[in-house]
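Tutorial sheet, problem 5. The two components below are modelled jointly, 292 residues in total.
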Amino acid sequence: MPITALIVDDSSVMRKIVERSLRQAGIEITKVIEAGNGAEALSALQENKVDLILCDINMPVMDGLEFVKALAGVESAKGVPVVMITTEGSEAHVVQALSAGARGYIRKPFTPEQVKEQVIPILAGKP
Amino acid sequence: MKSATQVATDQQNHESWRPLMEVATREVFELMLGSQLSVPEAADASPKPPHDVTAMVGLAGQLCGMLSFCCDNKAAVLITSKMLGVEVEKVSSTEMSDALGEISNMVAGNFKNKISGLGDGCMLSPPTVITGSDYETYSLADRPRLEIRLVFENMPVIVTLQIHS
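Model answer (structure tokens):
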């Protein structure tokens, strides 16, 4: 089923790479919404319903972990899976992200295959 | 594998980080660009390396320092082109700076994640990118400096880790 994806990263180049990786993973995307930080992403969610959120951690204004925690108060984001894509690859960061509500974690650098392995089961509703 | 603290207190062992820097850089290029980096011929190791574009990421915490990635303008444009999957003619200067910043960020992150205990204890700053080559850098820190030189599509790229503490 085609999806709307929200991609949150302070690098516009990285946002494009993530979008391309989703398409290469065979995910049909009708719309991509881009945000440069967590605050912009929260604002975008006021006006858009999305099916998947991919989010960096280290960002200015509002980082990815703050954003994921803030999502709990956003009605339109209830149940929307969040996958973190970040250079912060330590176990502590993974635990922090998953505890905050993220469903998946991809370390940069990454391949489209790694995106596929993480995202497809999540979109299919598998734990 | 030694902990970050053990390694950081042993100056000689900073040399053992050099192969980790190389692997971290190679992985970023292989995974994000689909490009293999090679080792330069000894004769190619010019004393004044190219640095039209310099992307820097600060490290703070258990390891304090600065990791920089330098290359010439042509290499920077090609790196950006490969990252974005667009033709070199379509790469803007903003995209080039953004892409090189991300390269330095990923190399620094990948490098610190390869050292046991450093992943949690070392934070990365947002990248800073300098374009233009008419400058010199000078560090007040009397500490080791590790440099690796690799070749991307016949063009040199240089990764430097200036260790402050």
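Marking note: Chain A has a mean pLDDT of 92. Full credit if you identified this.
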